[in-house]
Specification:
By secondary structure, this protein is of the alpha/beta class. About 35% of the residues lie in helices and about 20% in strands. The chain is built from 18 helices and 24 strands. Helix 11 links the parallel strand 17 and strand 18. Helix 7 packs antiparallel against helix 14. About 55% of the residues are buried. Bound molecules: 6-O-phosphono-alpha-D-glucopyranose (G6P). The site of 6-O-phosphono-alpha-D-glucopyranose has 16 residues, from helix 9.
Length: about 600
Amino acid sequence: MCGIVGYLGKEKALDIILASLKRLEYRGYDSWGFVVYNGKKIFLKKVVGKITEAENIAGVQNGFVGIGHTRWATHGKVSENNAHPHFDCQQKIFLVHNGIIENYDLLKEKLLNKGHKFNSETDTEVICHLLEDYKKKFKNLKQAVLETLKELRGSFALVIFDKDNPELLIGVRLASPLILGVGEKEFILASDLLPINLVGQKFIALNDEEIVFVTKKDFEIKNFTNQQKLYLFQEIRWGQEDIEKGDFPDFMIKEIFETPRAVRNTLKGRLLSDEVKLGGIELLGDKLNKISKIVLTGCGTAYYAGLVGKYVFEELTDFQIEIDVASELRYRNYKFDDKTALIAISQSGETADTLEVIKEAKKKNIITLGIVNVPGSSISRIVDAGIFTYAGPERAVASTKAYYSQITALIMLAIFLGLRRKLSRSEAKNILEELKTIPEKQEKILNLESEIIKIASDLTKSRSMLYLGRKFNYPVALEGALKMKEIAYIHAEAYPGGEMKHGPLALVEHDFPVVFINPHDSLYSKSLSNIEEIKARGAKVITITDDINCHFEENFIFVHHTLELLTPLLTTLPLHLLAYHTAKLLNRNIDRPRNLAKSVTVE
Ligand code: G6P
């Protein structure tokens, strides 16, 4: 759950490393560091805290090569010593690492017995000392890397720099992401795509068990047994403005406001009047006909998008549908059979638990589909087929716009598969026509920001809240509560509205805040009774609804009417804004909530 970067090129390593670390900061932000080399001198910096330029780079000169790291502590406390880059005894070999070395304790013991001096408590440092030994033995850095890799167990992406081989930068990937960006006589290695366009739009996503040897002029990709590997160039689709905050105070609010565009991009080129075109999925051909069961999985917000997907699939198809969070599913004794298709949902495409479920499913030869935002990511490359959501880069730790794109993709997939089974073309047409209107309706909700701020200002003193919704809007309640917890640090629980009387009602007392998502859907009147029940106990109810009569309610947020199965695309938006503004009023660090990171690439 760290971010790593390396640069070799045109005497601007320091600038590129710092800019990259800022872009990768969401992956980990308790400490950071870099090494830059200018041909004469090594500049090493390790800092606990925020990535700021001026105070920490005093005296550091630019160079043609450098590596950097932003840390999210796993092994070893947050300290300067434990921050990367780590180095060998001679301070010649420096490296940055994302992942975990599972057998580091055994390796460390061996290296200590040989007389190596350790500078940190991390698992990573053993790699530097192993490289040191093998370099001495083989008098060749590349060989040293290959030998060292034979000893490591775990998951890792590494970028390695050696002062004795300064025009060579080495990247290694095993189960942690690493991307090579290729510019004009300059190269960048990074944990994800965000820093890549600092050198150009072209990139190669390394596969597991691949090493890239980068020189000033060229690069070559080999596997762990030193055989040449073929590679595929891809192109980044977004520009600079997509990854900068612009005039917004935080990435999260920028990304919430990008929701209509994200949904439009997910739909783009895929809707015909009464059917959906999904190029990737179509390639599966007849294999799709044998599916009778769908298992959905994901983590966090992606899981809640999946939960909406469950209701949608049940409505539009006749598949048997199951869903579980990936961190549970991977350890369950779940019986995948050959009629099952797994749908994995992930913004980053790198979440370790989700990836593991896919690997398990693949071992059992079942069809795996991915709904992924980041091209070139691990999940997008491992699944049999999938749908890219094209929501654009997401940098705030708490996922927002990607969620709407994920739901949109799931709806399209349900229509696509439904049409091969029970769904009629006219039903499909009706849904697709309405789906096209969603971005505009979302824009109208975004205009309600000032009303939502008023409601948020009443919540800042709350210690606890309830979120309630039914059917399609039960996952919305879960997502609303998750956001309130993760960025405002207010305890919030979500329940299906009908479950109140089985326990949570006991919590309700005078002025207890309850958010009820209640559009005019098939359970509308039942939810109204639930609301009355809570109000009678003195709760302060905030209703999200498309019922205009609700103007008589004290606290309500109006969303436009849509088909029941599309309501989550609208009703979640006020909740994202509500959590954001509550957190803002409480002065929280919104883009970097405490204890959390965006890409959870370790268990
Ligand atoms: C982290 C993020 C969440 C995100 C989840 C799944 O917990 O903070 O916002 O929903 O990971 O991430 P993924 O990239 O797989 O969608």
